[in-house]
Amino acid sequence: MRRSSGSLSTVSPATSQADVKFVLFFDCSNEVCIDRCLERGKSSGRTDDNRESLQKRIQTYLQSTRPIIDQHEKQGKVQTVDASRNVDEVFVDVKVILDKEG
């Protein structure tokens, strides 16, 4: 179900029933995301790891998922991690958040 107002319950009935303590949001630019998926595609054999498919997936994310994150952000429930960094740095931030929120 698509978001038609400022309420999470309009996004999905399940969303309104869930008690969300926090949302862990891995933030990086679209280009970083695409580059990483293209690199993954070299070894994974995934045929959908191509630039055109990835750009479509990002548009779907922006239309369908990002509004949910924005709504949780308005409620102060989003913990953002800079995911443009290397995996070890990201892991440290995630561990700190989980230890604090967990």
UniProtKB/TrEMBL annotation:
Q: Which InterPro entries match?
A: Adenylat/UMP-CMP_kin, P-loop_NTPase
Tagged with keyword Nucleotide-binding: yes
Gene Ontology biological process terms in this record: nucleobase-containing compound metabolic process
The entry's protein name is: Nucleoside-diphosphate kinase
Keywords attached to this entry? Kinase, Nucleotide-binding, Transferase
Q: Does the keyword Kinase apply?
A: yes
Q: Specify the superkingdom.
A: Eukaryota
- Tell me the protein family, please: Belongs to the adenylate kinase family.
Q: Name one GO molecular function term.
A: nucleobase-containing compound kinase activity
Which Pfam families does the UniProt entry name for this protein? ADK
